[in-house]
Amino acid sequence: MAVAASIAGEERSVQARMASPSRFGDKAFEWLTLAMALAVVVLIILIGWQLWIGSSVAIKKFGFHFLVTSTWDPVAEQFGALPFIYGTLVSSLIALLIAVPLGIATAAYLTELAPLWIRQPLTSLIEMLAAIPSVILGLWGIFVMIPWLRDYPFPWLKRLFGWTPFFSGPIYGPCMLAGGIIIAVMILPIITSVSREILRSVPDLQREAAYGLGATRWEATRIAVLSYAKKGLFGAVILGLGRALGETMAVTMVIGNTPQIAASLFKPGYTLASVLANEFTEATTDMYLQALFEIGLVLFGITILVNLLAQLLLRTIATTSATRAVQ
Amino acid sequence: MKTKRSGNYTWRKIKSALASAIAFISAVLVIAPLGLVFFHLVVNGASSLNWDFFTKLPAPVGAVGGGMANAIVGSLELLALAGAIGIPIGVLGGVYLAEYGSARINSVLRFLADVLNGVPSITWGVVVYGMVVLRFKGFSTYAGGLALGLIMIPLILRTTEEVILLVPNGYREAALALGVSRWKTIVHIVMKTASKGIITGILLALARVGGETAPLLFTAFGNRFWNHSLSQPIAALPLQIFTYAISPYDDWHRQAWAGALVLVTGVFCVNILVRILTRGHTASVV
Asked: Which domains are seen in chain A, by residue range?
């Protein structure tokens, strides 16, 4: 792999030396494209810097307390982000609990278990699901999903698990659980399609070895494919988590938007992204705006860390499987 | 002994079939929301969809009728602005990654682009609010277009790089051997060969940001009337859907469903177009 790359590099430099009718045009074009490519670096710095200067006064004033207190009172200018952080984490966790098993099972179905003719159409449908804008899923959530959840699954959950603190109390409709479910729908396509890529990159040798030992289809999938791809699947899950944490519109429309920390999942909640969506244009005082910028900074910080982790996990997979393929 | 072994084998076969069945049910559950959302959009949206919807301004509260003409045009204006920012930067950046960058620089840039793709879209709204809205003291079309354009950059950059890498090296060598300069080779031979793929990437990015609401909430802000200046707030289809959906009025809810049907139809059309464009993709060179 490395050898091939260095040969290609050498070839390129030879080409560059031979073709030199207009040195200036070449250099100018290279610098132009480099400048554009560096936009990704500039953008990351820009986001961090803008959020930082936007919230510097609030950071100085509230310090670490911002993250661990739960009073959100714009009138008294007291700001604590704990209920939002809690809501973001809990709704994302619910989403993962639903989306991970479904997504990975679907990916396994698409690459290992399904009849060949069904694989491509099903993959296309999942890509279509990914294309539905968040606001439309939210609209559907408000007028279709929530009434249905309130009438059928929620009372049933309450009957079965009402004795636990998680499913106790009155059922309003918009709540943490509904938020988690809508996020699950939003992140299912990405978890499924990334998992599918990971499973597809598992070498056929693995499957052949398992079948050669007399494994059934499911045994081959479990022993030779899923366990081999464990790390990559974990990367897919973390990537899904990153999307879940930042999901805004659909959640805002179904989670109830009440800053509280309650054990019951039937109670409304609030997320970092939702409070930005709802209150940003209402921020009347400078300190209020500063606090909202700090919410943005917290959200950016969390998602960037999660995404870095996901990309690192997925990267190492890609390189190891590539080197393995060459060997 | 023999019966026990064959019994065990039957049990393993049953387990395998059971696992397949569970995986199949999972797949059905995953695509169920797609069918349900589309079904309800058609049922609830089609009845409110008429000529007025595409030609009239929103009606005041209580008045029946009205449309989203300004929001549809507004969305197109915002997409044009976003494209003007996102397409050149994304495409040329992708060209750098595919044609010039060293392996190490490329892996860093690619990594950052993927991380950028994971940045929540609402964050872009906050950043552009700080950069543009606060500085120029007002919500504007420019701000909305910029927010969407910045989101497009990493998306287009990655797809462009991928399709340009698919162009066989022989094409480059042939052009260079004829004495064509490197940059002309890239623009006229490589990018032209890969143009279908590049356009596909651009269309997908436009479809993606066309449905974005969060970055527009406090940049483009929304407008119930026609926008006459790019430095004024502007309506956008997703914004209008959001405003109507969370309102308490039934008339507005119906309009929201109709708007959602139009938006989803637009997004799906682009996706289907892309699928048709890329069908010959694997068969032809790029």
From this structure: 51-326 (1.10.3720.10)
